[in-house]
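Archive entry. Fields below.
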Amino acid sequence: MLITPNIIRSATRGSKDRLKCLSVCRENEKYLSTLSDINCDIYILLADGLSEWKPTISKMPQNVFALRKAVEHSELVGFDFIMCHGRLHEFDFAYSLSNALHLPLVTVDHVSEKVKQKLPFSASAKAETNDILPRVGDINISNSNEIKDSWNSSTYGISITIPPYVTAANVENEKQHKIIIDNNLPAHFTGQIEALANEFGCAVRFGEAAEADISEFEFYINTWNNIDNKTLEAMACGCVTLSPRTPENEAVITDGENGLLFGDIDDLRRIIKECLEDKHQHIAANARQFIIDNHSNKEEFDKKWNQVLSFVSNSFFTRK
Amino acid sequence: MNILFIGPYRQNDAWGNMSKSLIKTLSKIEGYSLTTRPIFLSGQASGPVDAEVIKCESNKKEQYDILIQHMLPNFMVYDSSFKQVIGITGFETLGCKIWDNSLNFLDKIFVTTEAERKGMSKELQPKIYSIGIANDQTIESKEKTFDPFSFYCIGGNLESRGGVKQALLAYCSEFIVNDPVIFVLQTNNPENANQLIQQVYSELGMYDEDYYPRIHVVTDATGLHEQCNSFVDCSSSLGFNPETVSALSAGSVPIVVSGSGRDEYIKSDSGFITESFKDLVLCPDRPMKEIFTAREECFRPVISSIKQAMRECFSSKFAYLNKSKRAKQTSLEFTHDIRASKIKEILCS
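PREDICTED_STRUCTURE:
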């Protein structure tokens, strides 16, 4: 039974003690990897129905551990908080786990209320906003102020904005290839993407035929309804990114300036053709500058996350 | 010395009330600093908690000497970083052994009554202490009215071992609709309460429903001790219900079951002690598979004895007022200071 050890931990841990987080985040390898230097070990829950850590997306950092057994059968004793990304199905599981184990819940919002959930570009969340609004944690982190304000999460618990951090080590690499496409999508969305990749000879980001180094590509096709860490990373490497025209992406990308936006698959085809005609290369420098200006301060990113951990360290579970 | 107390004090039920009372006592132990953390034993949301209880949550020490866990034994842990690990729990039946494994690693066990202490498994290793009860003394005592004369129970455990059914059987068989009496049944589950009342009518089979005396089901317990006349606590569970102390404090005359531990504090001059008989625990609606089985025993109230107590309580205003006066005096003996000094002695032993 893990409950009482968790409660004892909440009363006995020191403000500088390394914390233990139980994460139910899925499809967030890139983001979790950016947390490698914060004062916390992250245990990701792997179970039937939950996807495995994908090393092709990001190598598992030293502070992340896979928990393959059910929590109640784990030899691990005592956690400090639960972390979940998103407000839909992930949240419900994290919330019930938080109640069951008496641990505070930290949420990370990657998207605003306008799109509700990170989804493939042709999908939409089937949920009423009013049903989702009460889904907040004890501490709520948002990737941007726009995201935070859209959820009104500042009215619940502690709310903080931490812009995601990305690194771009290979920016000097020569752009040897043209287009790479993010094919890390649920199976029923990959058909369209594969057809497109075949039509234009695009490389794919993940899978057996994956190209690992996106810095060698001129164009990166983001197939999600938000600007995720993978897309930010591509921008940092000086790739011109093509993203779906969603409210989420429009908040980050100004079409033709720091990236390109497409409306539908036909529009994407048109833009790809333009890219192959070398029409949009000038955007690359702007994209990289955008990342340098907004998403490259690791010290600030770690500092803000350690601030969150400090809040967690001084908090304990209370049922609302 | 620093104490870390973990208990369900944010719960709005009998466990929560007991936990709040314990915190108030522990915070009064001289030379000890108390830090509290909540545990939730039920799925209910937090209930109201007074500032005196909440303020201990903001304490935090680098090192604790004593861990006190007020919870079901299967939640309790042993942690060697504490000099003493103490468990406080409620033992509702005699000879309950299912918690032995969870309790044997503790240093000390606290219960509220001698009946609980004596009824515990003989195979337990830790020393067991009865620490008694304490009362807030905050209930304002008002002059009671007698029209109608009101019996009441609070947070009535509607399950078979809760004694509510026996109390209703006694009440409905002793009085009729024309008697100036009422039974106020406070519960968080009015639907189940109404079903139980129908079951009682059906089992008695004496009159048409309209002829049975008045029963009023309420969900809010506010003011019941002050306004009503007689607190009916016919539970066959061992241990002490903090509500009974609140009833005494308000001058409400309690009716309790002999052998249950309540009779260690409530005597015939301050309340009514009904007869009971030792019986196997037969509990079709047990909350957990392993507990409240026929391997345990309990003191079951004699329904005719409850009837007699209700009648006496109702019919003699003089006797009632004497008991009410004595009840208020008795409640003054249950101070947090008295219990705190008792617990301090145990902690030092």
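CURATOR_NOTE: The longest helix of chain A spans residues 298-313.
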